[in-house]
Write a structure and sequence with these properties.
Strand order of the largest sheet: 3-2-4-1-10-9-11-15
Structural class: alpha/beta
Number of strands: 27
CATH architecture of the largest domain: 4-Layer Sandwich
Shape: globular
CATH superfamily of the largest domain: Aminohydrolase, N-terminal nucleophile (Ntn) domain
Bound molecules: fructose -6-phosphate
Number of domains: 3
């Protein structure tokens, strides 16, 4: 999703901005641009497509100057053309801005501007902000922002250049992240820590409603009434900064290989003395919890789909998983006795953040399972359990998913321990299997590599595939199918295995690939019947299983583990299979088309 950078310093701004934009590339974008305060005023340079196009333009004539802003745009309003690429300027050329987020009332604002004789030159929602700033200019950017920001509905992170103050970059944020830091050569602003970390590990996080002014050696923060705000920087760990493929062909493949270690790192502080220690995230008054609700989007929601079954089986507490984007506009049914577990790698997903706010407003107890320290969702969750996935660069998640699942197992076991809902023997059996999981993941990744490649060779030319599983195997099927479609562009759907015959089985034809996750012994017999149903219609059946007896056209065997943990192993060959399909199809694996790593719009 869109990325923002701003720099006010002493070095030539163009390379600083371009290098920072490169570190934001992983978020997904389709055009890029920058603006630099030069001798002739503020100059813009924009290009459609990859950042290399912008770099190419900069090499044959970058604007000179030491203050500037830059942007990678993931199109929402208006096609990804150069004309629509940020930065945008107002009609008088006073303000030049880049923007992340969505201005929901942009159409009405555009009409108002037109009525005042100001026509927008682009199809973007962002341009109305630049036009309004020019229109209401009060001679001081902070005063102008105070007048204009209340007119905007929606979300924004803004970096702004003002013609009258060539040494400054201004910033404002609402529901879209914005960070800043000081470094020896100046002050920087960015939407993502990845762009700032080469310059400093001491990062300031702007809060909703705050504004900032950056100059060479200082950053000033203000609240919406322009009162100065004192802020302390947050120190970011070294382990989150490693953005290097280290010899792997793709970040995604490297990150898959890192799963055993990151799961081990996530579990290490949690599994202690034959029990679970959640530290500051420990569950208060556990006897009062009468419902557990998981909230997340995409893969994070898939973790919730698995998590709800683990919670129910270990604690008997009714549990469900809802899509954050749906929860935020559904009738409120959570209360102080509901444990709402919010899952997010980035900690900035707008849908999840809004859902969390709703749960907080309803008085629910909220627990965030988050990867990015100090992110918005981490800050607003009642308590936080951090996953230790480190920086995940590939847009399609692998290691963040696995570490989230590991954290959910720990929470479920802690709840079971506190409520005494399983026998000590059963709890120890679960914890023992959990401690052994990283080694089994290692074994699974190794033994699955060549069969997953063979499956991909058989399937990669297909345009449709179906994934089946029951209970926790269904959660693995959901994640496997998402991996396949997002990186290989093969259309894939996951079904609870028993559901296919209620409609979708009409799509199974001779040769249709059907990938089955069959790890839960208690539902194996029924899953086998569902496999037979598709085989009878000519499907090419691929099965991931820990059952030594299971027979299918293509079988990939994974180690046996505790019945609640099989999903953590089953998902690994499904990731590898998707990866090899995408590779054989020549797809851009780390940056699939149209996708963004951190989805900061609703
Ligand atoms: C899929 C994927 C997405 C994310 C989703 C939530 O591979 O990565 O589905 O899981 O966008 O993102 P976070 O976890 O950052 O809230």
């Amino acid at each position: 999703m869109c990325g923002i950078i701003g720099y006010a310093g002493v070095e030539p701004a163009a390379p600083v901005l371009l290098n920072a934009l490169e570190r934001l590339e992983y978020r997904g974008y389709d055009s890029a641009g920058l603006a630099i305060v030069g001798a002739q005023g503020i100059e813009r340079l924009r290009a459609q497509g990859r950042l290399r196009n912008l770099r190419g333009k900069a090499e044959s004539g970058a604007p000179e100057g030491v203050v500037g802003i830059g942007h990678t745009r993931w199109a929402t309003h208006g096609a990804p053309t150069e004309q629509n690429a940020h930065p945008h300027v107002g009609a008088k050329g006073l303000y030049t801005i880049v923007h992340n987020g969505i201005i929901e009332n942009y159409a009405a604002l555009r009409d108002d501007l037109r009525a005042q004789g100001i026509a927008c030159a682009t199809d973007t929602d962002t341009e109305v902000i630049a036009q309004l700033l020019d229109l209401y200019d009060a001679g001081s950017p902070l005063e102008t922002l105070r007048k204009v920001l209340p007119l905007l509905a929606g979300s924004y992170a803004l970096a702004i250049l003002y013609r009258g103050e060539p040494d400054s970059v201004y910033a404002a944020r609402l529901r879209s992240p914005l960070l800043a830091c000081l470094c020896p050569s100046g002050a920087l602003l960015a939407s993502d820590a990845a762009a700032l970390l080469p310059h400093s590990r001491e990062i300031y996080r702007m809060a909703d409603g705050e504004l900032a002014r950056l100059r060479r050696a200082e950053i000033q923060f203000f609240d919406a009434s322009l009162n100065a705000v004192e802020k302390q920087p947050v120190a970011i760990d070294r382990h989150v900064t490693a953005a290097d493929k280290e010899g792997w062909a793709h970040f995604m493949r490297k990150e898959m290989a890192e799963q055993p270690e990151t799961v081990r790192l996530t579990l290490e502080p949690l599994l202690k003395r034959g029990g679970v220690d959640l530290g500051e995230a420990d569950l208060k008054n556990p006897g009062e919890i009468d419902r557990v609700l998981f909230l997340g989007c995409g893969s994070a929601w898939h973790v919730g789909v698995a998590g709800r079954l683990v919670i129910e089986e270990l604690t008997g507490i009714p549990a469900s998983a809802e899509l954050a984007s749906e929860f935020r506009s559904a009738p409120i049914t959570v209360n102080r006795n509901t444990l709402v577990i919010v899952i997010s790698q980035s900690g900035e997903t707008a849908d999840t953040l809004m859902a969390l706010r709703r749960a907080n407003e309803a008085g629910a107890r909220t627990l965030g399972i988050i990867n990015v320290v100090g992110s918005s969702i981490a800050q607003e969750s009642g308590s936080v359990l951090y996953t230790k996935a480190g920086l995940e660069v590939a847009v399609a998640t692998t290691k963040a998913y696995s570490t989230q699942l590991a954290a959910v197992y720990a929470v479920a076991a802690r709840l079971a321990q506190l409520r005494g809902s399983v026998s000590e023997g059963a709890l120890q059996e679960f914890l023992h299997a959990l401690a052994a999981l990283p080694d089994q993941m290692e074994e699974t990744l190794q033994s699955s590599e060549s069969p997953a490649l063979a499956w991909a060779q058989a399937v990669h030319k297909q345009e449709h595939a179906y994934y089946l599983g029951r209970q926790l195997d269904y959660a693995a099927a959901l994640e496997g199918s998402l991996k396949l479609k997002e990186i290989s562009y093969i259309h894939a759907e996951a079904y609870a295995a028993g559901e296919l015959k209620h409609g979708t089985i009409s799509l199974i034809e001779p040769g249709t690939p059907v990938i089955c996750a069959c790890c839960r012994e208690d539902v194996l017999a029924k899953a086998l019947s569902n496999m037979e149903e598709v085989r009878a219609r000519g499907a090419d059946v691929f099965a991931v299983t820990s059952d030594p007896q299971l027979r299918a056209a293509h079988v990939l065997r994974i180690p046996k583990t505790h019945p609640l943990l099989g999903v953590s192993l089953a998902v690994l060959p499904l990731q590898l299979f998707a990866y090899h399909c995408a590779r054989l199809r020549g797809c851009d694996i780390d940056k699939p088309r149209s996708l963004a790593k951190s989805v900061t719009v609703e």
